[in-house]
Design brief:
The protein is mainly alpha-helical and 575 residues long. The chain has 2 domains: 390 residues, Na+/H+ antiporter like fold; 127 residues, NAD(P)-binding Rossmann-like Domain (Rossmann fold, 3-Layer(aba) Sandwich). The chain is 70% helix and 5% strand. It is built from 26 helices and 6 strands. A 6-stranded parallel β-sheet has the order 3-2-1-4-5-6, with helices on both faces. Helix 20 links the parallel strand 1 and strand 2. Helix 5 packs across helix 6 and helix 9 crosses helix 11. The protein is globular, with a radius of gyration of 27 Å. The N and C termini lie far apart (88 Å).
Amino acid sequence: MEHNISLITTLAAGFSVALVLGFLAERIKVPALVGYLVAGIIIGPGTPGFVADVHLASQLSEIGVMLLMFGVGLHFSLNDLLAVKRIAVPGAVVQMSLATVLGMAVAWWWGWSWGAGLIFGLSLSCASTVVLLKALEARGVLESMNGRIAVGWLVVEDLATVLVLVLLPPLAGVLGGSVVEVASTQPLWITIGKTLLQVGAFIAIMLVAGRRVLPWLLWQISRTGSRELFTLSVVVAAIGIAYGAAQLFSVSFALGAFFAGMVMRESEFSHRAAEESLPLRDAFSVLFFVSVGMLFEPSILMEQPVHVLGVVAIIILGKSIAAFGLVLAFRYPLNTALTVSASLAQIGEFSFILAGLGLSLGLLPAEGMSLVLAGALISIALNPVLFAAIEPLRRWILQRSDLARRLEQRTDPYAELPMTTERKYLQGQVVLVGYGRVGKRIADALEVRGIPYVVAEQNRELVEDLRKKGLVAVSGNASDPAVLIQAHIADAAMLVVATPDPLNVRQMADTARTLNPGIEIVLRTHSEDESMMLRKDGIGTVFFGEEELAKGMTGHVLKRFDPQTNSQATASTQA
């Protein structure tokens, strides 16, 4: 008996080839995503040999899009965005606009329609969330100020791209699309208005009802104690909401899944939801990248090398230079500008989703999809090289450019304490490095007890807000001696490093000890090995998060069973 096993064949081929090439990519220090895309090229119709079912692969990729966007929503933090909004919002908007214009310009030069050029330019303007997060995590800078700016910048790009995905279908006819689902005699503004109303209704329902219903459902399911039911509920939330949004509100799968993840993040089960759905999300995201690779025509590398070089130049040079100049214009240091530039010098999943939608609407030619994919492959492969070149490039620029040295040393009003600062903040004070979740709690406790302190924080916007509240703060990286000098570390009573920064904490401590040998130093760490090394070196008092949590819980348990404590409590009750 013959069986139709095209689905099994496609899955087996896609996963197997992706595993091999992903492994090889990681071994040569290239993101595994490059291997997944090449796997799609190998099993696609553009290369000889076995060809997987393209139609089935495209449907599987839709599931991949849903789960991928669900994961993006789970990691979306409005607070992280608001913390860097003054640079991330205008920076992302200007940089995307410039990249889009460059893409439209080369498309016009090639003879494409302006609608095709717009989709092409937008596809080149948005970087990959997956590539960025992995690159920052690999270098241990995800939680740093540079990492937060890069992630916040990318969040704005993602939100802008989601808006484009919503507006593109109703605008397809105006942009010159050859595939229009329903011919409408209504004016364009009415069509766009209806689309925005539908999207607004869906968002309102998700933010109002979804925030209450989803956590309640997850709580009821978690009470059963069944792990598989909880995992199933998370997957149903991602795919079910995405499908329902598309059917009821004409919203794209991507937007529906994104808001499902964003709403679920608000619940207390967000970490467990992320953990339980991770294997399935990873598996189907691999299929998404494989299916995108199947659309690639390798011949374009030989037939149109100049076009490919133009696309790569826009992604790596055009976007990077724009981001570099914008970050410097906001008075951030050279290292931050180079980090953000390297972070954005690639394209990925949103580019594929956008280009695929343009292709389905008849706006983007097949050649455009291949060029977008070629740009993604090359830019993602080169991204680790760009990150590795940040520090050598920074030193090279500072050694050879007077302008760069002047920019690095320019006067920043937030990098110095005001002349009106009271004496109590300049002598015997606590210098608090970092004003995040831990630093803010320490500052609140010092405030309640009337202990003077000075905050040293990399986030210039946060320092500006602290100054407006009447708090004493300086902007800059505390590993730079100039920042601690501005915080009057020489006369301080204590240095408290409230940020887990293993790379720079020793330099901070060395500066503090050199300028103030008798200062007391308090450090925070997330790693047990790191805490042991710091304690062995005698740098200061080290607090390890899990260790302190264990001490607190142990103390509470022992207090409950301590006979002396219980007898005292009983005596006081009887009295």
